[in-house]
């Protein structure tokens, strides 16, 4: 089917939407729909006519996931994340505002089926890749190469987040189409793009590795929180902070309180088990084992000049 100039990007198997207008303004948390008229939306299972999408307030889990993805890009988040009634997920422009729309029920299904947080992360990373690559600004009938660019970005950023190659590919393995369409390459081609991005990031990780913990993303060793002093806990945050930000967070000022409110996920007491997935700035990206389940986030490497974690002794 011939694609018109406006294309909705659905999930990790889709294209990008652009709706040109002179008006500006975000529609998240309003009753106004995001118009997708004049275009066709394409999913991994075929084409589906979509004229508009209803935006809803995004949930905290999705917001934290997006912040985590963006923290590995070094770029500002110049788009809004909104829950919606789209089939899967979408990258779109409406009234000169960039959006990532996602179906909450679908992402819950992805997490359930993949049994991994990286499944949903790869979907959001793919849509982020569309925006950061400028795909939503391109008017083109042939979208296959753009999809591969977004797939490659997904693989790259998931490697930076500590995902194994299998974890980076798991959503595509389950939801990708075995046959190519007008807009989307076949699953095997898209998996190759994800793998290519993942491999490049791993090479970059090797060239910029931090020596405190040798190859943390592949060592499979378990660590525990071991904070020296009276605190006996460390905070896990939704993004990596630089040293100045950590000092601000501990300053007791209003600005520090605001920073903590925005970034602190929870406190991890001494003895909390965790896996170190990667290292960035003065923090480790970890998977912590908590009573609420596995939590992904960032912890500071040292506190009061002492390491915050130690290797769990093997029995």
Care to describe what's here?
The chain has 315 residues and is of the alpha+beta class. The protein folds into two domains: 6-207, no CATH class; 216-311, no CATH class. Helices cover 35% and strands 26% of the residues. It has helices at residues 60-71, 104-114, 117-132, 144-160, 165-175, 187-207, 216-219, 243-249, 254-263, and strands spanning 6-9, 17-19, 34-35, 39-43, 46-48, 52-53, 55-56, 80-84, 89-94, 97-102, 223-225, 233-237, 264-269, 273-280, 283-290, 293-300, 302-303, 306-307, 309-311. A five-stranded mixed beta sheet has the order 2-9-10-8-7. A hairpin with a 2-residue loop joins strand 4 and strand 5. The protein is globular. The model is unreliable at 1-13, 20-25, 37-49 and 208-220 (pLDDT under 50).
What key attributes describe this structure?
2 domains; 35% helix; 9 helices; alpha+beta; five-stranded antiparallel sheet; five-stranded mixed sheet; disordered N terminus; 26% strand; 315 residues
């Amino acid at each position: 089917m011939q694609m018109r100039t406006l294309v909705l990007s659905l999930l990790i198997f889709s294209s990008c939407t652009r709706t040109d207008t002179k008006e500006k303004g975000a529609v998240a948390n309003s009753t106004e729909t995001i118009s997708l008229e004049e275009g066709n939306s394409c999913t991994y299972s075929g084409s589906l006519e979509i004229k508009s999408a209803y935006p809803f307030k995004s949930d905290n889990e999705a917001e934290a996931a997006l912040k985590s993805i963006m923290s590995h890009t070094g770029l500002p988040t110049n788009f809004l994340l909104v829950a919606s009634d789209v089939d899967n997920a979408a990258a779109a422009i409406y009234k000169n505002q960039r959006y990532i729309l996602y179906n909450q029920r679908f992402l819950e299904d992805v997490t359930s089926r993949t049994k991994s947080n990286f499944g949903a992360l790869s979907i959001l990373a793919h849509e982020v890749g569309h925006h950061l690559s400028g795909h939503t600004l391109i008017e083109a009938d042939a979208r296959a190469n753009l999809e591969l660019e977004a797939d490659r970005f997904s693989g790259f950023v998931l490697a930076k987040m500590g995902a194994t190659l299998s974890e980076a590919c798991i959503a595509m393995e389950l939801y990708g189409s075995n046959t190519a369409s007008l807009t989307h390459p076949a699953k095997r081609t898209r998996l190759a793009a994800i793998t290519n991005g993942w491999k490049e990031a791993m090479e970059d990780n090797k060239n910029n590795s931090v020596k405190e913990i040798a190859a943390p993303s592949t060592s499979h060793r378990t660590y525990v929180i071991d904070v020296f002093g009276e605190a006996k806990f460390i905070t896990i945050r939704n993004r990596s902070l630089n040293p100045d930000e950590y000092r601000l967070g501990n300053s007791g000022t209003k600005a520090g309180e605001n920073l903590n409110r925005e970034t602190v996920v929870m406190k991890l007491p001494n003895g909390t088990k965790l896996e170190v997935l990667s290292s960035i700035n003065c923090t480790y990206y970890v998977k912590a084992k908590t009573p609420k389940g596995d939590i992904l986030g960032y912890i500071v490497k040292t506190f009061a000049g002492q390491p915050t974690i130690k290797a769990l002794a093997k029995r």
